[in-house]
Amino acid sequence: MKLMFASDIHGSLPATERVLELFAQSDARWLVILGDVLNHGPRNALPEGYAPSKVADRLNEHASKIIAVRGNCDSEVDQMLLHFPITAPWQQVLLAERRLFLTHGHLLGPDDVPPLDAGDVLAYGHTHIPVAEKRGDIFHFNPGSVSIPKGGFEASYGMLEENVLRVIALNAQRVIAQVAINP
């Protein structure tokens, strides 16, 4: 199964448009959004093209293809605008050989890892910094941020295809980080 990951949209319409364009081209089965969908939060500057209600409208067009978790900037008011659930602090996707534990990263994440089996994947956002690596027995995957990248990285998203997790630059389309998760 091919999955596309986006995190930390923070209400940026241009970033949302680019994500949806790439999602349509990717043939991915699901678009996994790892939190912070509509609001920028008090610690971040306004992202380019900040338009939360328009972001909601565009994402709602793809509601049946979205799996999402709640970020620290998401609220129940945001849920009122979105036609797909975002209030769960975590989700799980079960694959034949492993599970993907999806979270934003502010409650459970790299510093507070939930109980996972060897070979499972912890997918999170929150830091806005891309990660694709094995730490101990589990894989850590952070697609970075599509709107407010940090740590000197460019805006990015993620893909899971053929047992490889990749973080890809949103505009340049080059691989920033990757890790094979072969059984």
From TrEMBL:
MF GO annotations: hydrolase activity
InterPro entries from the UniProt entry: Calcineurin-like_PHP_lpxH, Metallo-depent_PP-like, MPP_YfcE, PdiEstase_YfcE_CS, Phosphodiesterase_MJ0936/Vps29
E.C. numbers: 3.1.4.-
Cofactor: a divalent metal cation
Record-annotated Calcineurin-like phosphoesterase domain positions: 1-161
PROSITE patterns from the UniProt entry: UPF0025 (PS01269)
Family: Belongs to the metallophosphoesterase superfamily. YfcE family.
PANTHER family membership: VACUOLAR SORTING PROTEIN VPS29 (PTHR11124)
Protein name: Phosphoesterase
Organism from which the protein derives: Kosakonia calanthes
Lineage: Bacteria, Pseudomonadati, Pseudomonadota, Gammaproteobacteria, Enterobacterales
Originating gene: yfcE
